Predict the 3D structure of the following.
Amino acid sequence: MQYIEEKLDPKTADCARALKSLQEELEATSYYHQRFATTTEPELKDIVGHNRDEEIEHCCMLIEWLRRNMPKWDENLRTYLFTSAPLTEVESAGAEGAGADGDLSVRSTNR
Ligand SMILES: [Fe+2]
């Protein structure tokens, strides 16, 4: 893998690998999703739809690895995921703003 910086520490290099892999999985998801939308032959449509869904699973696995290894991912995922609140309101409420149920009231800091 080619890095934009030399002499990366092992943890930073692993994060770079995960981020590059996520980029590749997201691209693959988009390719398969576009093919699924435009494929008319039923069996091939099923295959590319299955492949798209597998790529989404790969994306989620990488995001979880990033959450465990890059603290800002954890902080932001806790803020933005699994909420039904409008996303711009979640942001303006700050990292402590939204609970998993979309409630914009201030969260407990016991996390
Ligand atoms: Fe994949």
Summary: The pocket of fe (ii) ion is lined by residues 25, 28, 55, 58 (CB under 6 Å). Residues 105-111 have pLDDT under 50 and may be disordered. The CA atoms of residues 83 and 89 lie 11 Å apart. The chain has two domains: 10-69, 82-111.
